[in-house]
Amino acid sequence: MDTHVIKAVTTDDQEEVAEGFRKYDLLSLPVVDHEDRLVGIVTVDDVVDVMEQEATEDFEKMAAMIPSEKPYLKTGVFALAKNRLAWLLILMISSMITGGILARYETAFAVIPLLVTFIPMLTDTGGNAGSQSSTMIIRGMAVGEIEPSDLFRVVWKELRVGMIVGILLGLVNYVRLLFLYPGQEMLCLTVVLSLLATVIVAKTIGCILPIAAQVFHMDPAIMAAPLITTIVDAVSLVLYFQLACRLLELNGV
Q1: For the chain, which residues score pLDDT lower than 50?
Q2: How far apart are CA 55 and CA 142, in angstroms?
Q3: What is the largest CA-CA distance in the chain?
Q4: Predicted local confidence at residue 229, as pLDDT
Q5: What is the pTM of this model?
Q6: What does the H/E/C string look like for the chain?
Q7: Cα 38 to Cα 54: distance, rounded to the nearest angstrom
């Protein structure tokens, strides 16, 4: 008799059971109580439904929505609005930090108004870079490829990726800006260095936050694009204006 039976306990989370099917390539799995008495069985068709449900829940959380238990067309308008409103309020309030940063460096705008025109490019690129990293890490954790113990390996890899991507994006932008703004070499250098720093920081934040969420027993999916973008926007603006103040010698800013 085989005493090392792969089994599930009645109190196990359905996501853990689904992970067991994926890991061991099972077609069925016995379910026992805490006294190891057989109380039922889970088959692979049940797990397919669970995996679909869990994937849908993760997608909704990554889009900054509270998961809904009903299909979209069977969910009422008010229920959909309620599921979306909470996170939209949180993100809206947190975005006010960005406005505070812009107000803090209002003097820099007055000295060099051209600085404002590069803000959308920096924040959008940083948000996209952070979202790429967070999506990869969240998916890797969902399928069991990445564990919290892999934090330093993940950070080191994303730092190198961010460096490569940031340098290439910076070179393209530097050449473009030199043609658009001749004689403004220091301004172009400021934008390029800010872009490089933003991409590196964004990718680092994007890989750390989902792992940190799991360490604190939160769903990593909540640390997805909307939240990452809000955080990266604030960080990228501070980096940009600090570099501008020093490289362009904006006194009193």
Answers
A1: 252
A2: 9
A3: 83
A4: 82
A5: 0.80
A6: CCCCCCCEECCCCHHHHHHHHHHHCCCEEEEECCCCCEEEEEEHHHHHHHHHHHHHHHHHHHCCCCCCCCCHHHCCHHHHHHHHHHHHHHHHHHHHHHHHHHHHCHHHHHHCHHHHHHHHHHHHHHHHHHHHHHHHHHHHHHCCCCCHHHHHHHHHHHHHHHHHHHHHHHHHHHHHHHHHCCCCHHHHHHHHHHHHHHHHHHHHHHHHHHHHHHHCCCCHHHCCHHHHHHHHHHHHHHHHHHHHHHHCCCCCC
A7: 26
Q: What radius of gyration do the chain's Cα atoms show? A: 24
Token representation of residue 155: 């950070």
Q: Spell out the domain ranges in the chain.
A: 8-61, 93-247
| Other beta carbons within 10 Å of 72 | 8
User: Which architecture does CATH list for 8-61?
Assistant: Roll (3.10)
Gap between the terminal Cα atoms of the chain: 77
| Per-residue pLDDT, 156 | 96
pLDDT at 1: 65
Assigned CATH topology for domain 93-247: Tetracycline Repressor; domain 2 (1.10.357)
Distance CA 163, CA 196 (A): 7
